[in-house]
Design a protein that fits this description.
The complex is a heterodimer of chains A (262) and B (330). Chain A is α/β, with parallel strands linked by helices. Chain A has helices spanning 47-54, 77-83, 94-97, 104-114, 120-133, 150-162, 180-197, 208-214, 232-237, 242-254, 256-259, and strands spanning 2-13, 19-31, 36-40, 62-67, 70-71, 87-90, 168-172, 200-205, 217-222, 225-231. In chain A, the strands form two sheets. Chain A has a six-stranded mixed sheet, with helices on both faces. Chain B has a domain at 2-50 and 61-94 and 237-329: P-loop containing nucleotide triphosphate hydrolases (Rossmann fold). Chain B has helices at 64-71, 97-103, 115-118, 125-135, 141-154, 160-163, 173-185, 203-218, 230-236, 254-259, 264-271, and strands at residues 2-3, 20-33, 36-49, 53-57, 79-87, 90-91, 108-111, 191-195, 222-227, 239-244, 247-253, 316-317, 323-324. In chain B, α4 (125-135) packs across α5, α4 (125-135) runs parallel beside α7 and α7 (173-185) runs parallel beside α8 (203-218). Chain B starts with a strand and ends in a 6-residue tail after the last strand. The chains are: A alpha/beta (262), B alpha/beta (330). At the A-B interface, α6, α7, α8 and α10 of A face α8, α9, α10 and α11 of B.
Chain lengths: 262, 330
């Protein structure tokens, strides 16, 4: 479904003394249709940049990104635009992802209006259906984002994305800003939706335990490079790379107290 | 089992223990808002003994940060505060500003949440870390600066002298968190309140910071850790109090609370961990502006009884000396 080949992203700054930051360094990665790939790494490892590159929200410095076999950078503007609804992103912070002046209804129905997916008369019904799908009470339909909790906001963001019936979603740390019990709710929701729609998912997180629950395969990123890749279970149980091992140990350590009583 | 309506968490467990360093009794914090009073913290009783590490666990809106801020008198003016917070001979809630200023940063220090916003962006690190010593007139400015550099090197700055001349924005989140720890430790406070010291840090940096806090409080220090991170609390604390909707719902030794949680909320919280298989608690916390009459967890509770809906449970003391706010232990 999505293939990245030799993709790099280099940010340059300064005019006289040019400094370069290599955010993503020659990454080759693919996510098969219906699969869920977890991308794990510490902050600054380039995982969010990679997620944006996969959707061509930013231009790669070099390399190609193919979506469904077609090179995204070769598409014309109109073609790229037509591809957009099929690939969507859920951001880390639902507070900044939603327009504060739009009600839940406006926010979820906006993509339908843009893409003329539903007649104005059906829109409300679809919005209610989507709200039900993501577990939002129908009486929240006229609320503004500031009247919602963090978990509810993330559900709205998810409903808005699902309104387009995308094939591929990048979830960029969707629960990093949420509480533990809300995180569990949102993650099980994403799992449920994935099961029912066969969605392809690129799940970005710094939390190996979360990745372990959410993805079939995992890619470990460190300083812009993919240092290890494989089936999630294999990588978590038997890491080859020293950096991965370090991550796995840190993750086990933080939940070591649970092992003792289970 | 006995009711402990007026009891104080932890004190009955070991009556012979040294006197509590900090004694919170009947703390109630209410904010007035347009939609009526918001009960952020409701009748919280907690005693922190010298040398103890206590963790206050809860989710956003449970009132844990408000409790921490109340100790240092940092709540905004629209907060209505009831109860007492005894520290030595002072009641921190009624103490004059001068007394609080002498205690704050000197005897009780805080490692605050969000290192990005807690440091002064236009002040060099060295001066910021040395400032508490200068303000509390503990030593001269040059001595304070030397001490700041010493503390920074202790906290893992490779070149502390050079680091001292830099500004907060030049450091990463993990390094800024270390600077905040240095700031809190520099006066050798008797009590350290750490409010989510590892929020927003990735796993590696987090375990570094937790280890640092652990070694720093190992020799002499009492820790009041406020967190939603069960792993951090189990790593640092001897005792844990779990807060839900403004109340303490469970309190006991850290290992016991985490391995054998009594309150349905604590049980649900632990089951929601990814490593426990992600079993979410249905529903959401009640709004502190419209709290239910009965048990505040009743609506989401898988084990709710008929009386849970209308009666509000007290903090019951179980036979094994733990406290839990649930009718199942009445």
């Amino acid at each position: 479904m999505i293939e990245l080949e030799g993709v790099s992203k280099i940010y340059s700054r300064g005019f006289i003394r040019r400094e370069q930051t290599v955010a993503v360094d020659n990454v080759t990665l693919s996510v098969k249709k219906g699969e869920s790939l977890g991308l794990v790494g510490e902050s600054g490892s380039g995982k969010s940049t990679l997620g944006r590159l996969a959707l061509r929200l930013i231009e790669p410095t070099s390399g190609t990104v193919r979506f469904d076999g077609r090179d995204l950078s070769c598409l014309s503007r109109a073609e790229l635009r037509r591809t957009r609804p099929r690939m969507q992103i859920v951001f880390q912070d639902p507070d900044t992802a939603l327009d504060p002046r739009m009600t839940v209804k406006d926010c979820i129905s906006e993509p339908m209006k843009v893409w003329r997916l539903a007649m104005p008369a059906e829109q409300k019904e679809r919005v209610v259906g989507l709200m039900d799908l993501v577990g939002l009470q129908p009486d929240l339909i006229d609320r503004y984002p500031f009247e919602l909790s963090g978990g509810q906001k993330q559900r709205v963001a998810l409903a808005r994305v699902l309104a387009l019936k995308p094939d591929f979603i990048v979830a960029d740390e969707p629960t990093a800003a949420l509480d533990l019990s809300v995180q569990a709710q949102i993650l099980t929701l994403i799992k449920k939706i994935r099961r029912s729609t066969g969605l392809t998912l690129l799940f970005i997180s710094h939390d190996l335990q979360v990745i372990g629950q959410m993805s079939d395969t995992v890619a470990v990123m460190h300083k812009g490079k993919i240092v290890e890749q494989g089936r999630t279970r294999d990588v978590l149980e038997n890491p080859n790379d020293t950096y991965t091992r370090h991550l796995v140990e840190a993750a086990y350590e933080s939940s070591a107290w649970m092992g003792k009583n289970r | 089992m006995t009711e402990t309506k007026d009891g104080v968490a932890g004190v009955q467990e070991q009556p012979q223990s040294p006197r509590a360093l900090l004694h919170i009794a009947g703390l109630k914090v209410t904010f007035s808002s347009r939609s009526g009073p918001v009960r952020a913290v409701d009748r919280v009783d907690l005693a922190i003994r010298e040398g103890e590490r206590i963790g206050l666990i809860g989710e956003s809106g449970s009132g844990k940060t408000v409790t921490g801020m109340a100790i240092l008198g940092l709540l905004p003016v629209n907060a209505k505060i009831r109860g007492t917070i005894r520290y030595g001979d002072h009641d921190l809630l009624t103490a004059p500003d001068r007394t609080l200023q002498q205690i704050r940063g000197n005897e009780i220090a805080m490692i605050s949440q969000n290192s990005g916003n807690s440091l002064n962006p236009v002040m060099k690190i060295g001066d910021q870390v040395a400032e508490p010593l200068v303000i509390h007139r503990i030593c001269s400015v040059p001595d304070a600066r030397r001490e700041a550099i010493r503390v920074l090197s202790e906290l893992g700055f490779d070149d502390p002298e050079q680091a001292a001349t830099r500004y907060p924005h030049e450091f990463s989140g993990g390094m800024r968190e270390r600077i905040l720890i240095a700031l809190a430790l520099i006066c050798h406070p008797r009590l350290i309140i750490a409010d989510e010291p590892t929020a927003g840090l990735d796993a590696g940096t987090k375990s570094h910071i937790l280890r640092l806090i652990k070694t720093q409080i190992a020799h002499n220090g009492t820790l009041f850790l406020i967190t939603h991170d069960l792993g951090a609390a189990s790593f640092l604390c001897d005792r844990i109090a779990v807060m839900y909707a403004g109340e303490v719902v469970e309190c006991g030794p850290a290992k016991e609370v985490l391995s054998l949680p009594l309150h349905p909320y604590t049980q649900g919280l632990i089951a929601s961990l990814p490593s426990a298989g992600l079993h979410p608690i249905p529903g959401m916390s009640p709004s502190p502006a419209s709290l239910p009459r009965g048990c505040r967890f009743c609506e989401r509770c898988p084990a709710a009884l008929d009386r849970c809906d209308c009666d509000h449970p007290d903090l019951f003391l179980t036979e094994c000396g733990r406290q839990v706010r649930c009718f199942h232990y009445d």
